[in-house]
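Justification of computing resources. Each target in the renewal requires a structure prediction run like the one illustrated here; the chain below, 222 residues long, is used simply to show the kind of job we budget for.
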Amino acid sequence: MQKILIVEDDRSLNESLCYALKKQNYPVASACSIQEAKEMYGKETPMLVLMDINLPDGEGFGLCRWMKRQKDVPVIFLTARDLEEDVLSGYDLGAEDYVTKPFSMKILLRKIEVILKRTRTESETAFHDGYLEVDLCNARVCTGGKECSVTPTELRLLREFILNKGQLLTYNILLEHLWDSGGQFVDRHTLAVNVNRLRGKIEDEEHKYISNVYGMGYQWIG
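Resulting structure tokens:
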């Protein structure tokens, strides 16, 4: 289970943050140093990081830079450093927000809620594994770094598969979601033709994404 990682060497504040987040039913992990944070980050990428800048074994700026190189996880700086250049440095590193101490816990919790809601929405409407990249919001599909032309029907198929990763989508479910709303009659053969055309565009010998569950339907296995 992904957690919110708190990187704060002030143990009293660290515990207060943990308590407030757990009270809102967020899973939490805490660290008091850069080294501890890196060890936790290596085991499981957190869904968000709350990070101080002044840490006992270095600056949070460097830790943020290191984390962003591993995976673009949302970061909120929590710090007493309120100089303009520090704030700008935080945003330049890709932080979602820069909060100076002292701060309102209620406002911080609302900031966290907004950021997680947005990142969840973005992750649900996108897919990227290094070879296939799908951006459903912008109707963009790339394979091997090159843009791939897909039809509106193929894009609707991709949306159904990506929004239901790992789930078996029966023939009837796909037909209902894709065509029945428009009053068109489409049979299983037409569905199979569209799925096969889509597979021909996004798959190769090394990359397989759509599995045909014989007699039942299809499943996204990417």
